[in-house]
């Protein structure tokens, strides 16, 4: 039986043990989705990316959590982009490559420092928004998180947004309140099901353009995701649409800190671009990633 090579990569991190770990299966050509699901469950990481095709700077990819396939994984896409260049699977000196998912092509920009690939920017799916959920359901989400409406930040937006996964965003008054959350997972799973969201993303301000966040995804089999690409991209879009973050020259740049409560500190850079009508139409997430291990199945 052919061996299946894979690497483990810490995304949104510059040192091993930080950020969010992703498994990358380097050759999934001919692998059926059912087999990918089994491999992802065996590897046991929050996300597994499967490289299904390779041609020049275009690569086929599918993303799986322990509970099944997802349309987009921001940290896995970023880790994959840098890994393809570092392992020589992309042409030498590549500065832009494309990840083709079953639904769209995601451009990845690779940034070099002193000739070495240092950082990547991934453009995720276009942001989408839903109507505000009933306040009663927001209160239910707050209670499931282990807090209440007294700690809700009234100057920041709450709501449901999408850049690959639908998430509920819950603004809280300080990072300390976010860190103190101790969710009741069955209750959070139930409210996630009611709202039809994949994750519940609690966040708080640290400065005019910086925020602290935690992300809970019990429906995906992930009680808490260390550092989240897609949800932070959607958070950037939600903040940009609400107008509460300063806007410069048709774009907004934000920094999101996440993972500190779990001992996996990570940094996600978010760039939101506006259309001529003034609405956010594109979101990019950026950061570093480091290969920490390799193996075969």
Give an overview in words.
This protein has an 18-stranded mixed sheet that branches. It has helices at 33-43, 74-86, 135-145, 175-179, 185-195, 229-242; strands spanning 5-11, 20-25, 47-55, 58-65, 68-70, 96-100, 105-113, 116-123, 128-129, 159-162, 166-171, 199-207, 210-217, 222-225, 251-258, 266-274, 280-287, 289-296. The chain is built from six helices and 18 strands. Helix content is 22%, strand content 41%. Helix 3 runs antiparallel to helix 5 (185-195). The N and C termini lie close together (10 Å).
Please give the share of residues in helix.
Answer: 10-25%
- Quaternary assembly: single chain
Mean pLDDT: 93
Task: List SSEs in N-to-C order.
Answer: EEHEEEHEEEEHEEHHEEEHEEEE
Bin the strand percentage.
Answer: 35-45%
Q: Compute the number of strand runs.
A: 18
Beginning-to-end CA distance, first to last residue: 10 Å
Radius of gyration: 18 Å
Structural class: alpha+beta
The rough form would be described as globular
Question: Treating each run of at least 4 consecutive H or I residues as one helix, how many helices?
Answer: 6
Low-confidence stretches: none
- How would a crystallographer describe the biggest sheet? 18 strands, mixed
């Amino acid at each position: 039986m052919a061996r299946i090579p894979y690497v483990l990569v810490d995304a949104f991190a510059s040192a091993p043990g930080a950020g969010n770990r992703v498994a990358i299966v380097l050759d999934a050509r001919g692998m059926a989705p059912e087999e990918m699901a089994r491999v992802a469950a065996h590897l046991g990481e929050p996300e597994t990316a499967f490289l299904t095709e390779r041609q020049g700077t275009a690569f086929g990819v599918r993303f799986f959590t322990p509970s099944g396939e997802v349309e987009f994984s921001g940290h896995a896409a970023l880790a994959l982009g840098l890994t393809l260049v570092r392992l020589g699977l992309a042409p030498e000196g590549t500065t832009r490559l494309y990840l083709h998912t079953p639904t769209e092509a995601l451009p990845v920009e690779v940034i070099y420092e002193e000739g070495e690939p240092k950082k990547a920017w991934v453009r995720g799916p276009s942001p989408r928004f839903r109507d505000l959920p009933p306040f009663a359901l927001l209160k239910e989400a707050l209670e499931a998180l282990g807090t209440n409406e007294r700690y809700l930040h009234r100057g920041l937006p709450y709501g449901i947004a999408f850049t690959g996964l639908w998430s509920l965003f819950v603004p809280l008054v300080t990072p300390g309140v976010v860190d103190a959350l101790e969710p009741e997972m069955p209750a959070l799973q139930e409210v996630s099901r009611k709202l039809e969201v994949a994750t519940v993303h609690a966040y708080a301000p640290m400065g005019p353009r910086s925020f602290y966040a935690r992300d809970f995804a019990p429906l995906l089999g992930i009680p808490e995701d260390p550092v989240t690409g897609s949800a932070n991209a959607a958070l950037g879009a939600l903040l940009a649409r609400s107008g509460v973050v300063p806007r410069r020259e048709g774009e907004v740049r934000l920094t999101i800190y996440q993972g500190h409560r779990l001992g996996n500190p990570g940094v996600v850079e978010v760039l939101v671009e506006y259309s001529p009508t003034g609405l956010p139409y594109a979101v990019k997430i950026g950061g570093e990633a480091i290969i920490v291990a390799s193996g075969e199945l």
